Amino acid sequence: MAVLKYEEIAESLRTRIAAGEYAPGDTIPSGRDLAEQWDVSRATAIKAVDVLRSDGVVVAKQGTGFVVTETPVARPAGARRAGSARILGGMPFLRVGTPDWSEPPAHVATALGLPPGTRALRRIRILQLPDGTPNSCVEAWFPPEIAEASPRLADTAPIAEGTTRYVRRQTGRFPVEGVDVTTVRLATEVEAGRLNVAEGTPVAVLVHTAHDQQGRPLVCEEGVTPSSLFEQVDRYAM
């Protein structure tokens, strides 16, 4: 399938941002400048920038133009519905520690199709409410073949283009199916510390597994949210 011109421009800007050419807070080229550089209409250039804005990579700044986002935004586990913008339901987040290679819990290993004893790359983040308090904690587990082919997953710095686009660029693999399983239980001591609640607080646990074009697991995320903050709304035809 041919890549449309505005998508090509947007992807070029993502790559330059990911490479550090445009750091957080820097202004990206204007629609007029992009139109001249790429020999396209201004409408096409603006559409490319709108793609980045929709994904939360850039934000509008009055009197300046569009600047690279300074506060990283992530979506809760299981919130990557087809056609949804990256910023839809996104929240500011903090990275917890440094990504590490560990043996995942049995249910995560099963979701990733990993035999016992196999280590996976783990990234932990805390999603925050507007006042800075924790909303949920998410552990994302990447199977070895994905993590080894995508070295920036092991960095603590946010990936401006988002992990999904980065993994696709590195491996050619992308999610076509998501499986979400929601359960309830009591928070562990570690989870309680991350969420600033008492140990044993009721929590909702959403385990999200993304599968690629061939049904192979790409990532398994376990999101834990205090029951007082968890809400799931489904709208459907009847």
Descriptive account of the structure:
- The chain has 238 residues and is α+β, with helices and mostly antiparallel strands.
- 27% of the residues lie in helices and 28% in strands.
- It contains seven helices and ten strands.
- It has helices spanning 5-18, 31-38, 42-54, 106-112, 144-149, 163-171, 189-195, and strands at 58-61, 65-68, 73-74, 91-95, 100-102, 120-128, 134-142, 177-186, 202-211, 217-226.
- The strands form two sheets. Strands 3, 4, 5, 6, 7, 8, 9 and 10 form an eight-stranded antiparallel β-sheet that branches. The protein has a two-stranded antiparallel sheet with strand order 1-2.
- Helix 1 packs across helix 3.
- The relative contact order is 0.13.
Order of helices and strands: HHHEEEEEHEEHHEHEE
Q: What proportion of the residues form beta strands (DSSP E)?
A: 25-35%
Spans of at least 5 consecutive residues whose pLDDT stays below 50 are: none
Gyration radius over CA = 19 Å
Summarize model confidence as the mean pLDDT.
89
Question: What level of helicity do the residues show?
Answer: 25-40%
Number of β-strand runs: 10
Distance between the termini: 36 Å
List keywords for this structure.
single chain, 238 residues, alpha+beta, 8-stranded antiparallel sheet, two-stranded antiparallel sheet, 27% helix
Summarize the structure.
27% of the residues lie in helices and 28% in strands.
Topology:
Layout lengths: L4 H14 L12 H8 L3 H13 L3 E4 L3 E4 L4 E2 L16 E5 L4 E3 L3 H7 L7 E9 L5 E9 L1 H6 L13 H9 L5 E10 L2 H7 L6 E10 L5 E10 L12
Antiparallel strand pairs: 1-2, 3-4, 4-6, 5-6, 6-7, 7-10, 8-9, 9-10
